Amino acid sequence: MCTGSDSKSDPNSNGWSRARGAVLKSLVLIGGALLLRRLTKSTTRWDHARIVAESLNGEKFSKEQAVRDPDNYFNFRWLSCPAADMVDGSKVLYFEQAFWRTPHKPFRQRFFMVKPCAKELKCDVEVSTYAIRDAEEYKNFCDRPRDQRPLPEEVIGDIAEHLTTIHLKRCERGKRCLYEGSTPVDGFPNSWQNGATYCTSELAVLKNNEIHAWDRGYDDDGNQVWGVKGGPYEFKSAPASRFDDVLNPLSFTSQPVGKRIEGSFVLQE
């Protein structure tokens, strides 16, 4: 005898189906609400400052640029790390630059102070640079064990002369950068080299913590007297084998370093 299907439904089965449907519906609604909240959550002023500070941190090199154009660009090492937090929440970073072959002999040392722009300004993040009261004491700060670095309160006490301030804005959609900005058009007072009376700086933060920085000095007549002319230095995170490439093409230069440095960068004691 063939057995046909039962035309009557099991009431328990129907109840379970309705319960399961209700659970699934609830999960979909909750998931949608969480996704919508994540997508519509606004980035705060301090979020912008945090992103920029994290991008400035780390070890980066201008190697690729120096390989492309060795007559105008050096392979510099950019190194920065957190040094202190101010009472208002501003982040203080220690920063130094050196030639890639002599990373422990920096020729430029600074403090960066990163914080949100004041509400009345049309920008998102303010990055200021300050001189260091005793720069020699801070050499290789980021390379040292933490217990061998100056303490945060000492760092704050060693923040010296204000040098420049750059106001960064979020980049428009479609651009490579995340944030970009510059000093005011008239720059900041500067008398480091070659008769300069003021300097300007441009800064761009890109994805993958890439940094583009362009510093230039001008005389009273508006003539550029120091700094590279072709465009900003491009600093990218370095591969682990950066010091192992003995036959690196940057080992060989077409001009003496002394001649090249005049049009490329400023060396400071």
Automatic annotation (TrEMBL):
One GO MF term attached to the UniProt entry: lyase activity
Keywords on record: Lyase
Domain of life: Eukaryota
Pfam families assigned: CpeT (PF06206)
InterPro entries named in the record: CpcT/CpeT, CpcT/CpeT_sf
Keyword Transferase applies: no
Record family assignment: Belongs to the CpcT/CpeT biliprotein lyase family.
Protein name as annotated: Chromophore lyase CRL, chloroplastic
Organism encoding this protein: Anisodus acutangulus
